[in-house]
Design goal:
- The structure is a homodimer.
- By secondary structure, the first copy, chain A, is mostly helical.
- Chain A has a domain of about 70 residues: Arc Repressor Mutant, subunit A (Orthogonal Bundle), CATH 1.10.10.
- Chain A has seven helices and two strands.
- In chain A, strands 1-2 form a two-stranded antiparallel sheet.
- Chains A and B meet through α1, α2, α3, α4 and α7 of A and α1, α2, α3, α4 and α7 of B.
Chain lengths: ~120, ~120
Amino acid sequence: MTVTTEVQLHLCPKFHAAVELIGKRWSGAIVQLLLKGPLRFQELQRAIPEISDKMLSERLKELEANGVLLRQVVPETPVRVEYRLTEKGQALEGPLKMLSEWADTWLLTPDVFTVP
Amino acid sequence: MTVTTEVQLHLCPKFHAAVELIGKRWSGAIVQLLLKGPLRFQELQRAIPEISDKMLSERLKELEANGVLLRQVVPETPVRVEYRLTEKGQALEGPLKMLSEWADTWLLTPDVFTVP
């Protein structure tokens, strides 16, 4: 292996961080749902029946800590809490749309695949 | 919530399967490296020093089982084993490139972010 090849094989740490962020179980799903507009906790729960309250809560906190979404308290009676994407989160629309198109083309039915 | 909203909030199972496949720890990294051309096990190891032999081996098997890459035995002396993307794997170039661009724009340095 030449030195040039070794340099080319360097893994981009930013890319890896992005995959880790979006690829965490249900994180991509949450972002994809929020691309359609702000949602309440219960609405996200209903859209992802497989997720537990605890995990949904954890993922929302992680995505908030990473600046992907905001937790917004709407001063109504009763108070309404909404989750909405930031500009950074909204910018994931392109990559997620392309991944979705890839999935439509290349994945027949999810249960055929061996992702545990 | 109206019935229409509920329909819109349905999570696409193919999209979710794609995120799960690529988002598994190091899977995205392996595919990104192979986009540059076929690589041997040792070359992948060198490019991802943090990955253990066992995990690299597991990920390669999963990606092979999902039709993303092929394990190819090149009949040389000594025998050379290479991993190369299939057409399906190569088609991930677009989505991963867009995610990489998002990361370049929005992630400052990976250690700033709180992805464990």
